[in-house]
Structure formats: structure tokens, C-alpha cells
Design goal:
Layout: H1 10-35, H2 46-49, H3 59-82, H4 86-108, H5 114-139
Helix pairs in contact: 1-3, 1-4, 3-4, 3-5, 4-5
Length: 152
């Protein structure tokens, strides 16, 4: 893969955003079902989009917080797989969390909990910084050059 002058491809960008958002919510759903599903009688979208469930005052709230933070670690891995460029990681991570903010606003109104803002701010920082670190590590790897020796 060569990283020279790239052509602006809006369909690729939209597809990457869509895939990243879907993978983020699939991971969040899996983690919520494991961590929160064992504590509540019925899972619902409340745990995804309602800011009141992100609470540090209950054990279930801590499980929701852990789910969000662990999904941001997974999101960094998705950035490595889908985006592959360190300079684009912050843009795509911010897009994931801005879309999540809009969905939360539509579902339950403006998030007025400071805990929600701290958890999501920490999540975007983890996803962007770890994603950039992983992408930089990949970009700085040596390029293997094979040499063929002829048996003369």
C-alpha cells in the first residue's frame, strides 16, 4: 500500500464511517449484553442511548461505563483495520462519537449528566489516540525486500 497523493473518494469515506459505526455498536451491544445483561431482567436501547444509565452511583451504571470504555478500545482496533492512516484516526473517532451524540439526543434529549460527558470524552480520547498509535506502528514497520539469489 502506497501513501502518496490520495484521491478524494466520498463513497469510500461514507462506507468507512458506516462500517466503523456499525462495528462500534455491535461491540457495544455485545459488551452491554455480557456486562449489563447479567444484572438486569431485560436489555433495551436505554443502555445504548439514555444518558441516565451512565452512572457511577450503581453497579449497573459502572457496567455500562465499562462497556463504553471497552468498546472504545475495540474501536481503536477497527480504526487500524478500516482506516489505516494515523492522520485520519481523530476524524473518524470524532465522527463515531458525534453520531452517537446525535442518536442520544434523538432518543433521550440533551445529555445533562457530567458522567456521560466524561465517559464519552474519555472514550473518544482512547479510540483516537490508541488508533493513531496502532496506525503509526504499522506505518513505521520495515518494508520487507526479498532478494533472490541465483545459483550460479
Amino acid at each position: 500500500m502506497f501513501y502518496g497523493a490520495t484521491v478524494w473518494d466520498p463513497w469510500l469515506i461514507v462506507a468507512q464511517i458506516f462500517c466503523l459505526q456499525c462495528l462500534y455498536y455491535l461491540t457495544l451491544g455485545l459488551l452491554l449484553s455480557i456486562l449489563v445483561g447479567s444484572r438486569v431482567s431485560r436489555m433495551s436501547l436505554v443502555y445504548f442511548f439514555d444518558y441516565a444509565t451512565v452512572s457511577a452511583s450503581t453497579v449497573t451504571g459502572w457496567c455500562v461505563i465499562a462497556s463504553f470504555l471497552l468498546s472504545s478500545f475495540a474501536g481503536a482496533g477497527y480504526l487500524l483495520l478500516l482506516i489505516e492512516r494515523a492522520k485520519k484516526c481523530l476524524d473518524f473517532a470524532a465522527t463515531v462519537y458525534i453520531v452517537h451524540l446525535f442518536m442520544c439526543i434523538v432518543y433521550g434529549g440533551w445529555p445533562s449528566s457530567i458522567t456521560w460527558w466524561v465517559v464519552n470524552g474519555t472514550g473518544i480520547a482512547i479510540m483516537a489516540l490508541l488508533g493513531e498509535y496502532l496506525c503509526i506502528r504499522r506505518e513505521l514497520r520495515e518494508i520487507p525486500i526479498t532478494r533472490y539469489r541465483s545459483n550460479v
